[in-house]
Specification:
- The protein is mainly α and 647 residues long.
- It has a domain at 2-53 and 461-636.
- It is built from eight helices and two strands, in the order H-H-H-H-H-H-H-E-E-H.
- It has helices spanning 2-185, 189-260, 265-323, 327-497, 502-532, 536-540, 543-555, 609-617, and strands at 565-576, 582-593.
- It has a two-stranded antiparallel ribbon.
- Helix 1 packs parallel to helix 7 (543-555).
- The radius of gyration is 78 Å and the shape is rod-shaped.
- The two termini are 28 Å apart.
- The relative contact order is 0.12.
Length: 647
């Protein structure tokens, strides 16, 4: 019987251990399912976040669409403003065209006038150069003629000197003869004195004639000065003409300066005109140089005349000395000399008069020619300016028409391209919006259907598993209660049978007390452990309440998840020594509960019946429990002396 009871106790212990292991597996499965439930909750939260993100994206897209519509409206307004601006630009371009036509006409007229002035000045300069060349040639010819006359005079003077020398030689010879004849001619002295008086009278007359000649020379000098004054007057007139030309040039330069900002090419023409003016000034300077050379030549001639006069005076002195002896020879020679001098003076007067007449005639001709040339040049310049103005106007109009046509073509092209781009952008934007909306709706539908199916499958599996486990646990508890009742009845029978032996009764009573104490302590500890365990409420509460709690946990926050914690349990037990004393000992054990949030599941998997069976078969490690303390009774418990048994 005892062996049977021990076997029954062992079987009961094994059954309780199996039940404990099954409870541990159930607790582990509940943990896993709670983790899965939390994972589903997190997935639902993620889906809600994604849904919110999709809604935000839709809102952003709608805002972008509105912004694009506003931008399109702004672009339309800009296009209208550009059109108005283009109209204003067209008006301004027309005004500019009119102004440009006016400027072109003015420019052409100025250009023609400048060309005409240039031509006139060039022609005038050429004419003046030709005239100056002719004058220079005439002056050179006159100079050559004067030099010829001077040469002739010098030759005549040399001849006269030779004649004088010959006469002097003859006079010496005659003096010798006269010395011989003086004595013979003393009688004739009186006649000679009378002749001497007559000679003195003639000498006075000759002196008077010499004074007259001097006066004539002074008059000729005065005439030369008058000619010089006339030349200076002509120079002043030329200067006045140049000043007039310069004034006109300055006026035109001022007019050119007014148009210089608009037409830069006139500056080159003005520079060319300045160059031509400088050339004309050079020509005038050359003219002045020629005049100075002419004056110098006149001075040279005057010097030669003075030399000739000095020679004449010397000759007259010599003649006066020789006239004492040879009055007749001197008179004849003086008469010839006077004739020659008269002829020379007449020739000089005629030459001076001819030069005056030629100068005045040439001056008048030059003035008339220059006036005619200026009139012709002005007429030609005006005609050329008119032609160039007409050409410039036609060219500017053609260019403006081309520019307007190109401008209108560009505006139409820009508008067409803008309309095409606008339509393509609107179409692309609408298509992108439709695609994104369709994709988001399809994804949301798929995710919601998938999660609903998984959630429903998991809930169904959990319900079936929980109902099966609850039924099994109730059956096992009923079996265990029936076994405990049978064991108690058997123990009571043993106690009654063994009540005849007192020592054994004492031992049995002591061990019974010990077993009762230990069973009470063990029952208290087990009851406390069961109450402290987080799965006690799950085992005691019915299935619908559990489902409601699960639904409430889904709707709850992450703070409802149990954190990592530990449970400390203390065990007291008595040990019988060899002296018969009993010693109470204490032992402490800790049980760790991990945080279910550490078990991260990346992909949610639906619980199928096959997976549930696998989880039931291969559960986690069984948690130690103190249910075995209920069956420890005295010496019947083989593990009573083992302090580490049933811990």
């Amino acid at each position: 019987m005892i062996n049977n009871l021990e076997e029954m106790l062992i079987a009961g212990r094994l059954a309780t251990e199996n039940l404990n292991s099954k409870l541990g597996e159930v607790h582990h499965q509940l943990k896993v399912k709670e983790g899965e439930i939390m994972h589903h909750i997190t997935n639902e939260k993620k889906l809600e976040i994604e849904k919110n993100e999709v809604q935000l994206c839709n809102a952003e897209l709608t805002e972008k669409h509105e912004i694009s519509l506003q931008e399109i409206k702004d672009l339309e307004g800009l296009i209208q403003a550009l059109a108005a601006h283009l109209v204003n630009l067209d008006k301004e371009s027309l005004n500019l065209l009119s102004k440009f036509d006016e400027m072109a006409s003015l420019y052409a007229s100025c250009f023609k006038l400048v060309h005409q002035e240039k031509d006139a000045l060039s022609k005038h300069a050429q004419n003046q150069y030709g005239e100056l060349n002719t004058k220079f040639l005439t002056l050179t010819s006159e100079k050559d003629a004067i030099q010829m006359t001077n040469d002739e005079l010098s030759n005549r003077v040399t001849e006269l000197e030779k004649v004088l020398e010959s006469t002097l030689a003859q006079h010496r010879e005659e003096c010798r003869l006269a010395c011989e004849r003086i004595r013979n001619l003393e009688s004739e002295a009186e006649t000679l004195i009378s002749k001497k008086a007559e000679a003195e009278i003639l000498i006075s007359k000759l002196e008077e004639k010499a004074g007259i000649l001097l006066e004539r020379s002074t008059t000729s000098e005065n005439q030369n000065q008058g000619l010089l004054l006339k030349v200076s007057a002509l120079e002043t007139e030329g200067k006045e003409n140049t000043e007039k030309l310069q004034a006109e040039i300055l006026k035109k330069s001022e007019e050119i300066d007014t148009f210089r900002n608009e037409i830069m090419k006139l500056e080159q023409h003005a520079d060319s005109l300045d160059k031509e003016v400088s050339e004309l000034r050079m020509v005038l300077e050359k003219k002045d140089q020629h005049i100075l050379q002419y004056r110098e030549h006149e001075k040279k001639l005057e010097d030669q005349i003075m030399e000739s006069k000095s020679l004449l005076t010397a000759a007259e002195n010599k003649i006066s000395e020789g006239s004492k002896q040879y009055d007749l020879m001197v008179e004849t020679k003086q008469l010839e000399i006077s004739r020659h001098l008269k002829e020379i003076s007449q020739r000089n007067d005629q030459a001076i008069n001819d030069i005056r007449r030629r100068y005045e005639f040439e001056k008048m001709e030059i003035v008339n020619i220059e006036k005619d040339k200026a009139d012709k040049a002005i007429a030609e310049i005006e005609g050329g300016c008119d032609q160039k103005l007409a050409k410039c106007k036609e060219e500017s109009r053609q260019q403006l028409m081309r520019i307007q046509e190109e401008h209108t073509a560009l505006v139409t092209q820009i508008r067409q391209e803008h309309d095409k781009k606008q339509l393509s952008l609107i179409a692309e934007h609408s298509e992108q919006q439709r695609r994104t909306q369709l994709q988001a709706e399809n994804e949301l539908r798929e995710k919601t259907t998938f999660l609903r199916s998984e959630h429903e499958a998991q809930i169904k599996a959990l319900r079936t598993e929980l109902e099966d486990e609850c039924q099994k646990l109730e059956e096992e508890l009923n079996l265990q209660k029936s076994k405990e009742d049978r064991q108690r009845a058997l123990l009571q029978l043993q106690w009654r049978v063994m009540s005849d032996k007192p020592k054994e009764d004492q031992e049995v009573n002591s061990k019974q007390e010990y077993s009762n104490k230990r069973s009470a302590i063990g029952s208290k500890r087990s009851h406390q452990h069961v109450l402290d365990s987080p799965y006690y409420e799950a085992t005691q509460t019915p299935v619908p309440k559990l489902l409601k709690k699960v639904e409430n946990a889904k709707a709850g926050s992450a703070m409802s998840i149990p954190k990592h914690h530990k449970k400390v349990t203390r065990h007291e037990y008595e040990v019988e020594t060899s002296n018969g004393r009993t010693v109470t000992k204490k032992r402490r054990s800790t049980v760790m509960y991990e945080d279910p949030r550490k078990h991260k599941i990346n992909t949610p998997k639906a619980n199928t019946p096959a997976s549930v069976v696998k989880s039931m078969k291969g559960g986690g490690h069984p948690r130690p429990s103190n249910i075995g303390d209920l069956f420890s009774e005295g010496s019947l418990n083989p593990y009573a002396d083992d302090p580490y048994a049933f811990d």
